[in-house]
């Protein structure tokens, strides 16, 4: 079984930055693709970013391209989401997700139903 624990959420002003972390445990981290999704109040959960098992390929939702960066440290079993130029519409609960897959099919990564393991979520609030 895989456990995912997010941290780093909080309150930020518009234009500011936050960095989320997701610690992975329970299985070898390097065989897992990792992703971030988010859910705002009253809305569906949306894809934010994903990274393949090696860290060489990353994928982003249109609303965060150029502002957010996903990365992973395989030595620390952790994936990060650096969020810059934050906007009030980035306010949401951010979820870390993992699945044991090795794929270069970019269409796979945004599909949340593909991910078997999820964290509990961390709240990000951006004030205007």
What does this structure look like?
There is one protein chain. The protein has 128 residues and is mostly beta strands. 0% of the residues lie in helices and 48% in strands. The protein is built from no helices and 11 strands. Strands 2, 4, 5, 6, 9, 10 and 11 form a 7-stranded mixed β-sheet that branches. A 4-stranded antiparallel β-sheet has the order 1-3-8-7, with no helix packed on it. It is globular. The N and C termini lie far apart (40 Å). The mean pLDDT is 95.
Poorly predicted runs: none
The share of residues in extended strands comes to over 45%
Rg over CA atoms, rounded to whole Å, is: 13 Å
Structural class: mainly beta
Oligomer: single chain
What's the N-to-C terminus distance?
Answer: 40 Å
The helix content, as a percent range, equals under 10%
Shape: globular
> What's the helix count?
0
* Largest β sheet strand count, sense and barrel closure: 7 strands, mixed
Mean pLDDT: 95
- What order do the helices and strands follow? EEEEEEEEEEE
Number of strands: 11
Write the layout of secondary structure elements.
Layout: E1 3-7, E2 10-13, E3 18-25, E4 33-39, E5 45-51, E6 58-60, E7 68-73, E8 78-83, E9 92-99, E10 117-118, E11 122-127
Parallel strand pairs: 2-11
Antiparallel strand pairs: 1-3, 3-8, 4-5, 4-9, 5-6, 7-8, 9-10, 9-11
What's this entry about, in short?
The protein is 0% helix and 48% strand. The strands form two sheets. Strands 2, 4, 5, 6, 9, 10 and 11 form a seven-stranded mixed sheet that branches. Strands 1-3-8-7 form a four-stranded antiparallel sheet, with no helix packed on it.
């Amino acid at each position: 079984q895989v456990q995912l624990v997010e941290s780093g959420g909080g309150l930020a002003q518009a234009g500011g930055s936050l960095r989320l972390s997701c610690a992975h445990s329970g299985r070898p981290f390097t065989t897992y693709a990792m992703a971030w999704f988010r859910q705002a109040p009253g809305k569906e959960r949306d894809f934010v970013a994903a990274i393949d098992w090696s860290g060489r390929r990353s994928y982003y939702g249109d609303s965060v391209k150029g502002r957010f960066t996903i990365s992973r440290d395989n030595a620390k079993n952790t994936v990060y989401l650096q969020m810059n130029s934050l906007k009030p519409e980035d306010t949401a609960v951010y979820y870390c997700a993992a699945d044991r897959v090795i794929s270069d099919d970019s269409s796979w990564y945004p599909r949340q139903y593909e991910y078997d393991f999820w964290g509990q979520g961390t709240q990000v609030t951006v004030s205007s």
